[in-house]
Amino acid sequence: MSNKVFELQLTVRDYELDTQGVVNNSVYQNYLEHARHEYLKSIGLNFNELHQNGTDAVVHKIELVYKKPLMGDDRFVVKTYAEQSGNVRFIFYQNIYKLPENELVLEGIVTGVFMKNGRPIRPPQEVIEAIQ
Amino acid sequence: MSNKVFELQLTVRDYELDTQGVVNNSVYQNYLEHARHEYLKSIGLNFNELHQNGTDAVVHKIELVYKKPLMGDDRFVVKTYAEQSGNVRFIFYQNIYKLPENELVLEGIVTGVFMKNGRPIRPPQEVIEAIQ
Amino acid sequence: MSNKVFELQLTVRDYELDTQGVVNNSVYQNYLEHARHEYLKSIGLNFNELHQNGTDAVVHKIELVYKKPLMGDDRFVVKTYAEQSGNVRFIFYQNIYKLPENELVLEGIVTGVFMKNGRPIRPPQEVIEAIQ
Amino acid sequence: MSNKVFELQLTVRDYELDTQGVVNNSVYQNYLEHARHEYLKSIGLNFNELHQNGTDAVVHKIELVYKKPLMGDDRFVVKTYAEQSGNVRFIFYQNIYKLPENELVLEGIVTGVFMKNGRPIRPPQEVIEAIQ
């Protein structure tokens, strides 16, 4: 399996809007987290099962650039691409595009690490294979 | 158009889980609100456009009976059925069932009213027609 | 210790507002949950420690009547009063009042039960003593 | 008035925890937003009033480094310091420390801009004076 972009289509829900009538800034992190977990599922890893078995995927750093706000009823796609970084870290590049015009909404870079017993570990084999 | 049940299928997202590993109680209200707004869309009414034109759909009362918790990765369907109640109120009966077994997760009864300029008004014609 | 009303003062945070400029309906459940957990702490019970020891406080039913919306920057108090109901259930009466005028915002009735190993149990002794 | 650090003390609420038993990553953005809005209030600016008058404080970029997770019942302080950056942008440096030991939990850098009629404007005089 070669490394590729994982796409997840979603629609804004009205409870995600704030008083400015746009999706609240923190909600984009929910979208990105959900897309990462769906990405992991697509390569055979389940976040909740990993947690029950003592392995946690943990975010170390997140950078978000807000380009254009999403509003009520907007449809959008989260595109996720992952790369290894050093021995234990891996980086998710996650951009959000508004549909159907594919306008750039948000650029995200999320650095993560897998932890077991409080220590960083090498990513599971499924991750290493998927991002090669 | 005769009155009928509106169905919306969704999947639990991991950020909706709480420390007990189940969907947090308040999140079901998000699911129900989203289903009501999608229901309104299905009969030609848009919650955000209504608001911009000065009409707000407002919840007066909500009753929720929690039957079985949803957990990570669960798929479920929200079934919504609406009835008028008196001149200005209408009632949404909203049940959530876990898929694929259709196990009852939550029974909801939501009483709402449309407001304009701070006063209850008769529901828009689209609602009256849809729930006849 | 005789049964009494537990009061928790809070302030609306802007991210809790929705596109109507009022606190979103589901957020009141967050307020009520937080007030219940603070109430439990005030009688010597910690929700998270209980969970780690295998006992979960679970909501069975919730009824909310929305009287007046909270808006940005509003200060309010959650008043919580608990009663036993039968052998295993207990009921929280939780009203929210806007400060400083003490206007009624929301009336809540929350029925809960303590669970251990998937079964309802008699409430912990701290609860029984507190609500006598 | 000289530029100074604005401090806001908060406590973790249980509904902010996720299935790992720690505060969910996106919730820190809520904490930071709330601290920024309280900071603005402390210098005489109200986010909601600004919005009603057509001026919106908008986040352009956010960088978060997660150092140590907050857990249930943790008390913490958000320390906010603001600087101007060019003509229209300003930068909030926002760190979160766990109390009472002042352990570093999160380092945040938030770049914002004030918008009016869809265009960036020079920050209100209150901001310029406060961050000199």
Features:
homotetramer; 132 residues; alpha+beta; Thiol Ester Dehydrase, Chain A; six-stranded antiparallel β-sheet; 23% helix
Order of helices and strands of chain A: EHHEEEEEH
Unreliable sequence segments of chain A:
none
Helix content of chain A: 10-25%
CATH class bucket of chain A? Alpha Beta
CATH homologous superfamily identity of chain A: Hotdog Thioesterase
Instruction: Please give the largest β-sheet of chain A.
Output: 6 strands, antiparallel
Class based on secondary structure composition and strand pairing of chain A: alpha+beta
**If helices are DSSP runs of H or I spanning 4 or more residues, what is the number of helices of chain A?**
3
Any idea what the CATH architecture of chain A is? Roll
Assign an overall shape of chain A.
elongated
Largest interface: A-D, 21 and 21 residues
Report the mean per-residue pLDDT of chain A as an integer.
93
Number of domains of chain A: 1
- Percentage of residues in DSSP E strands of chain A: 35-45%
Give the structure's gist in a few sentences.
Chain A has helices spanning 25-42, 47-52, 125-130; strands at residues 6-11, 55-66, 75-85, 89-99, 103-116, 119-121.
Detailed description of the structure:
Chain A is α+β, with helices and mostly antiparallel strands. Chain A has a single domain (6-130), classed as Roll (Thiol Ester Dehydrase, Chain A), CATH 3.10.129. Helix content of chain A is 23%, strand content 43%. Chain A is built from 3 helices and 6 strands. Chain A has helices at residues 25-42, 47-52, 125-130; strands at residues 6-11, 55-66, 75-85, 89-99, 103-116, 119-121. In chain A, strands 1, 2, 3, 4, 5 and 6 form a 6-stranded antiparallel β-sheet that branches. In chain A, a hairpin with a 3-residue loop joins strand 4 and strand 5 (103-116). Chain A is elongated and about 40 Å long. Chain A starts with 5 loop residues before the first strand and ends with a helix. In chain A, 41% of the residues are buried. The mean pLDDT of chain A is 93. Chain A binds chain D through residues 19-20, 24-27, 29-30, 33, 48, 51, 56, 58-66, and chain D through 19-20, 24-27, 29-30, 33, 48, 51, 56, 58-66.
